[in-house]
Amino acid sequence: MDKITKNAFSVKEIIDTFIRVNHAGELGAVHMYSGHLRVYKAFHMCEIDEIEMMLANEKEHMEYFISKISSHSRPSLINSIWMMCSWSIGAFSTFLMQHQGTMSCTDGVETVVSQHYKDQLSRIEIVIADEMALIQREEKRSLTLLGAEKIDALRYITSLQESLILLKDLQEKISKFLEDEEMHRDSANIKCTVNRVTKIHKEFIMYLTKLAIHISERI
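RESULT FIELD:
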């Protein structure tokens, strides 16, 4: 049973980590776009509709992970820092560089987030295949058991099936969210004028986003 328990624990850890880091990331995205919008509205900038659409997408993503965080994970210990920093980055990027600042910021963030979600989907696909194979083996093994051992085996199979359902739900939602993030990235990339300033800005934003992901996965 040690090997079985270890497998169950590792899958739960994967789910816990994915939900926590994605929850933190979507909270940050909502605050980043809110920071952009605050400056757009203050200076009556005309490109507000696109930013509001992106913000609406991120709120949808955030609400999903909020619905999962209490029962399957926990919030990152430094979410308040991410929210404050994300809003400030969004607001100052737009304030200092106007629409180009918004677009280079969005391009940088969504480039990293898109790859992050792709990596998660690849991992989830492997874990789902492993879980399905394990369920089949355990169902076959349970046929040979009696009494308390059979009850324990059936409980374990039920827990595996519950994890599998959640993994498939995560797979479906993250796939949809990836489409939104890639749409944001591509739109921003097209509209961002590439020059030394926007290139440095984008690379700086990408570095911060990767750092935020790395930390949120751990704490």
